[in-house]
Records
---
Amino acid sequence: MRVQVPPRAFYFFMSHPIQVSASILCANFAKLGDEIKRCEDAGVDMIHVDVMDGHFVPNITIGPIIIQAIRPLTKLPIEAHLMIEHPSLYLDDYMDAGADIISVQAECYGPLRPGCQELGQYPKEVDEIDVKKAKADIDRIHAKGKKVFMVVNPGTPLCFDALLSNLDGVLIMSVNPGFSRQKFMPSVLPKIQKLRSIYQGDIALDGGVNAVTAPEAVKAGVNILATASYFFGAENPQEAVQYLKRLG
């Protein structure tokens, strides 16, 4: 039986093949060069670097020096996911270090909700953002020839419709950011569906992506899957990547 595919759905899947982004948060940092090579050999499409400052999220990870160190090791695009307060102060540092994609959190551009305004109160969430302030950073990133994704935490609504035409993609967090190996939150699936209904650009997902959760995410409209423990913990990383890509 021949399956009839609506023209819009056909356009989406033809123009948005599934891509896999390997988050080095779960890599062996004592052998980071080897881990990057493992990503390449497995067929991942980009390297995802989680940058945390201990203020925006309850964890501290790495800075631009790591991106600078791995940039000569691979031709894969490197994404710097800035889970930090005041990202405007550090954009040039990450771009100059070699990041190809800068992902900034929507929550850094709006008034935080009560209960997450103080140090140590997480997750950070907003209901609206300062579009002009966010647009200024987007323009700075584009001016250096880099791509920019807007990131939104699970509890923050899609509050940046006015910026969608200026973005190269949107990254939906499916866990509250800060730590790896968290459980996927199915409550973000309607948000993905809503975004896909109005946005034809790249939609990425980060948090709890594995063989069980990825199919539902792709069905909802995701075309970039960021994976950390699922990839780096796999007995056969290449098979894991091939499985995710076949979902499209």
---
Amino acid sequence: MSDVKYTIEDLNFMKLFQAVSGIYPRDILQDQKFNRTIIVVDKGSMGASIGKSGQNIIYIKKVTGKDVVVVEYSDNMQDFIKGLIGQNVSFNISESTNSTGVKQVTISVSPESKGLVFGIKGQNIEKIKLLLKRYFNVAQVKVI
């Protein structure tokens, strides 16, 4: 993650997030595909980040016009993915590297849970792909 460069918009968004929530974000990503901002916070900061009844997120969305998604960081990929997918979904992860050195992750879930993993219009899987690439250098994510 050492090559991450923030734009002025990112830095201003981080300042706004901190001013509203009292939590300094660990990282920020712009998801252009879904016009949303993904904020990564330290473990244990999720509740304060979102605020009572989601008031912090609602306010930030009103000010910026962008959807805001807050996720908790973990340096353990299994725990990180569990936080992204949700605690109620049972899954298995397998990692591999293909012959060209590309790191891949396969997430195995029950057929009835696939919709939760993908999300509406693929929003959840896109978030998972962006974050796994950024934090764990994963180039491909498959859900089976």
---
Amino acid sequence: MPGRRGARYDEMKDKVALVTGGTSGIGLATAAAFAREGAQVVVASRDARRSKAALERIHSEGRASWIACDVTDSRAVERLVARVVADHGRLDYAFNNAGSGGRMTPVAAMSEDAWRRTIDGFLTSVFLCMRHEIPAMLRGGGGVIVNNASVDGLRGYPFPGGAAYAAAKHGVLGLTRSAALENAKTGLRITAICPGWVDTPPVANWRKRDAGVAAEIDRQTPRGRIAAASEIADGVLWLCSDSASFMLGSPLVLDGGYMA
């Protein structure tokens, strides 16, 4: 597993990074990584209780604050981005990571409510964030947006019940590519990351509950283990860095060989 690293991207010092869903898993690891680079990090999430522990973790690396936001609520997202700009004067990086959904059910048995909750939680939320982040970044001369898509945006979901999630993640990639082309000459870069199986709390809990699922997840990953959240965070930071200046629209796939 990767160990703790120091700062690598000097250009991130004193920049402003927004991470939605930043209180656990990939979001928390990414927020901490931005802070380590010297960025001022703003974490957005719905859970005030988790935010305290998350900020303590991020503060061990650098500067961070928290803003309550439900990313499926258009007005809440508008207020979030406006407050980031009001508090810090700019928005340089955004990692649209937050997501939530309805109950996982096979298509023939899925309720419309479960479908809509999943599409809103994982796709509409990204649209709402970009809708407000893009103008804010353009006013500041540019920036980078990274959307969390998943390898399930490149394939069908590998277990029964994940069709709505996969549909949402396919949509995130279509949205990312289209918005990237719209802004290709503006100084704003938009791209996505496609993680495979990652050791996040939901995945860890699922693996503990079902030994068969755990074995199948391991089998699906040629690397022989699932990713640590910090490994995905490293990918997000690279996409945001000047080293990825020609990375536009296309996703970065970090899956331990799954899609190979």
